Amino acid sequence: MIHQDRECVATHGRPAWKARANSTFPMLVGMRDGRTRWEQLWWQRVKPRRFVLCCIPFFIDDLALGDEVETTARHVVRAIVARSGQATFRVWNEQRDPWVRDTVLKAVETFRPWAEWRSTDLLALSVDARAAGAMAARLHALARQGLIRVRAGEVATPG
């Protein structure tokens, strides 16, 4: 995490689709402990002011790997123009135990998710939405054992 004065910026060291990405710009996460929090996201520019998300958001809700957005000239997301059909999960390994990391990855490998580690304790997973329910059940079973905390990325419904 980069700290600049009163701001924190979460970055992606190994974006899922790094080879496709040709642009980065931050999105506002919110305020915490008096600091403005941002997440630097990786994008593929497909048209002027149109971008496809090439990383799995650690903190930004309502976006998933592969979603296409329209932005303002200053790269503020105005609208999600196409959903990718991916579901996002955030998994916290609060014990920072390598065995727990391996256990989580083994538990979900049959779903073939994209994975990005933020740190030793935060993993973002992206999976086809059709497999999301089954993968959620597998992750929640680990959570009930006290190994992890898990949260699905929230997606706003149109309306």
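The record above closes out task 2.4. Task 2.5 opens with a second protein, given below.
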Amino acid sequence: MDWNKQNGREMKRFLIIEDNKMMAMILAQLLRQSIQSPQILHAPTLQQTYQYLSQYTVDVVFLDLNIERPLDGIDLLMHIRKIHPTLPVVIVTSDSEIDTVKRVVALNPTDYLIKPLSLNNLQACLEKCAMLQ
């Protein structure tokens, strides 16, 4: 069974919220290797993130924890949960400090990926997101 076609609905549009252009490019490339013809939006700033979230319907959000200042992704995750409670949000970060992980996990992200990313970890994450669609 194709995990991206469960429940008759495909995940096609992804929002990458990441200030580091190289990391966003790596994640986009891994998505292209995992999903056929994905639509990828990249928001390097909070302002652009809010704009995309109001203009587009996305299937999955990949959220860096540190966008414009340390841990501002946590506030953004709370905002996304408030306006889109069922939207899969995956935290993508190099921060594995236990206190940070606890704060983030309390907000119930769909998954928590530690950089550097791997194709296997991303595909497992996408399967998890597909089950929630």
